[in-house]
Amino acid sequence: MPSEKIHEEFIRVRGLVKYFPTDQGLLRAVDGVSFDIFRGETLGLVGESGCGKSTAGRCLLRLIEPTKGVIEFEDRNVTTMGKGELRQLRREMQIIFQDPNASLNPRMKIGDIIAEPLVIHDIGTKQERRERVAWLLGKVGLDADYSKRYSHEFSGGQLQRIGVARALALNPKLIVADEPVSALDVSVQAQVVNLLQDLQEEFGLTYLFISHGLAVVEHISTRVAVMYLGRIVEIAPAFDLYARPLHPYTQALLSAIPVPDPNAKRERIILKGDVPTARNPPSGCRFRTRCPLAIDECARIDPELREIFPGHSAACIRVEGYSTARPIESLVTPAV
To answer: If you write DSSP's letter for every residue of 196-264 in order, what string do you get?
Structure first.
């Protein structure tokens, strides 16, 4: 986890909403999400499949158009930008995709794939681009000669390193890493995570790291936000969240992390029932239908994020101190 303190607000997301129309009604993929990302940090965004975390990340880059809300990048309103402004912004905001093989054109050589962002933005001569590609391959631990090969000649871990090199081509400030290691073997996951951390330190990168692998998120994140059914239910510095989870959903997720010590015992919290549909979420608290602590009031009260401890916020009326805690619309407390 990055050790230096993060104090400078970099990304502001307020009231982010993304609905998808379906034959059965609106799918509320992201439904009123607010968070901040501080310069140089890694914000981990976790939750079960289908909770909206990848949609939120893609809305951040406007790869998907938000339905409502405001996204600010270094005090620039991303949501109101036209095509020209957005094109320029692409140089500063990049993405690493979950499936490295599917994100690379099999008909293009690796060197051309990595150089493509430079061509699109008309950066450098052909020779300068070749030199840049060779340098980037070296930075991600690959041989420069690999630029002459095609994607089918590489392993999954190598392909993801190529995806990282492509994301770095334009010297971005922010990288959205969308499940970047979930398709890789465990040993390769560690290599890619360590690579991302080394690159962050060297280039001063800021990450939004999206994953359902809680052990990986703990290792790389400065802060962690937990999503459930389109909402953020808890956000805190990584150490605090893993040491003292407040929301029942977070507690259940953390209880499922395997313990490497065979003699260690951990009480597993088994959630009952299935995740409700995002087309018709429950009234009140969205987690109440599976929550072991739910009471009648949970069906009436839609809990907002409140700061229970400095920098540690949760959205649950059953959390001790919630009723007297400060309601938070702007989550701007830096990680310490």
So the answer is: HHHHHHHHT-EEEEEES-HHHHHHH-SEEEEEETTEEEEEEEHHHHHHS--SHHHHHHHHTSPPS-TT-
Residue 278, pLDDT > 50, answer: yes
Residue 321 lies in a domain: no
206-264 pLDDT, tens per residue? 999 999 888 889 999 999 999 999 999 999 999 999 999 999 999 999 988 777 666 66
Residues 11-22 pLDDT 10s: 999 999 999 999
Q: Average the pLDDT over 162-177 and give the result.
A: 95
Choose the final residue of a domain: 235, 258, 276. 276
Q: Measuring CA to CA, which residue among 9, 103, 6 is closest to residue 331?
A: 9
208 and 143 in one domain?
no
- Helix H or strand E encompassing 82: none
Among 171, 195, 230, residue at a domain's last position: 171
Q: Terminus-to-terminus CA distance in the chain, angstroms? A: 12
Token readout for 221 is: 């994140």
Q: How many domains does the chain have?
A: 2
Quick one: 182 and 158 in the same domain?
Answer: no
The CATH code of the domain that includes 226 is: 3.40.50.300
- The pTM score is 0.91
Q: Using an 8 Å Cβ cutoff, are 174 and 12 in contact?
A: no
Dihedral sign for Cα 119, 121, 126, 128, please: negative
| Residue 99 in domain | no
Nearest alpha-carbon partner for 219 in 176, 183, 186, 249: 186
Q: Taking residues 62-75, report their average pLDDT.
A: 94
Residue 237 lies in a domain: yes
**How far apart are alpha carbons 71 and 57 in whole angstroms?**
11
Residues in the chain: 336
Give yes or no: residues 42 and 187 share one domain. Answer: yes
| Domain assignment of residue 126, given as a range | 104-171
Max Cα-Cα span within the chain: 68
